[in-house]
Task: structure prediction
Amino acid sequence: MGIQLAGVGHYLPETIRSSADIERELGRGEGKVFRSTGIRERRAAGPNETSWVMGTHAAQAALAHAGLQPSDIDLLVAHISQPELDYPDIAWPLARDLGLSPSCAVMGVRFGCTGFVGSLHVARQFLETGAAKCALVVCAEVMHWHAQSYPRSAPILGDAAGAAIFRPGRPDEGRGVIASFVGNLASHIGECLVVNDHLDRSAWPQLSPGMAEELGDAPYSPRGTMSFWNGGDIFKRAIEHMTAAVQRVLEETGLGIDDIDHFLFHQANIRIIKGVARHLDLPLDKAPVHIETVGNTASASIPVLLSQELHAGRIQAGQRLVFVGFGTGYSFGAAVMEL
Result:
């Protein structure tokens, strides 16, 4: 029976930032952002739309969809890539605002843009061993403020939250999550990272020689952070390892491309998604996208896409899904689910 999806929900801030606005701010040519990324607009959280506020809205929508109460949740796995809080993790204000039971296990994890796949993989271990009976996974991201401090990421990142609830499946349902894994390319940590001003610049070369060379004298952002992306390396390795992740879980399950109804890729860049599809000989109509109107929302991208597609009726019971992520670290992973 496996681990089954009980409910899903998402939240998008009301404020929209268009690619045209960002192009004017950065002095870039008209239409360049859309041509290179596939993004026309993204959402920007307001001052009071914190990651946990957005995550609470998404989780409440998932609970309503599942017909469950906060007291039914006995495991919360929360993910954020760039937290506003140093400690505690955002899982704690989420647990407070949702009214979760004091006996509910609460944790925060960090997988970068692979966050939904990684969080699902963690929750699966609890559910399959019986350590938990109903797991809430929340991915909440407020990315636009730190993107604005670095021209390479400003045209790409947006804000959103997605939530999914998982529980042991029933005999009348599909097999649920039948494969999942996460992996790392830690030797490439220096190609995509954000550091804060607590880290002395003398330590930069051992962490990221590229950042030290390119940004050695650059000022920190108003929030005390410094971002560095090696775009070419990210692009190449994302295609390579997202492709390999799909191949690994399909081989593990004995399934082929034709056996899968929908591939939900991390919505990083439309050219990356098309590149992976080309390597897999995958029809693009099997890979739904929302990047044009939502942007790259890091770990929130897959659960938001899942929520949108499921509530629109384009994903239905009985179908097979593959979730595929790639993010900073680098991290990568995939999961196969039969609804």
Notes: The chain has a mean pLDDT of 92. The first strand starts at residue 3 and ends at 11. The two ends are 10 Å apart (CA to CA).
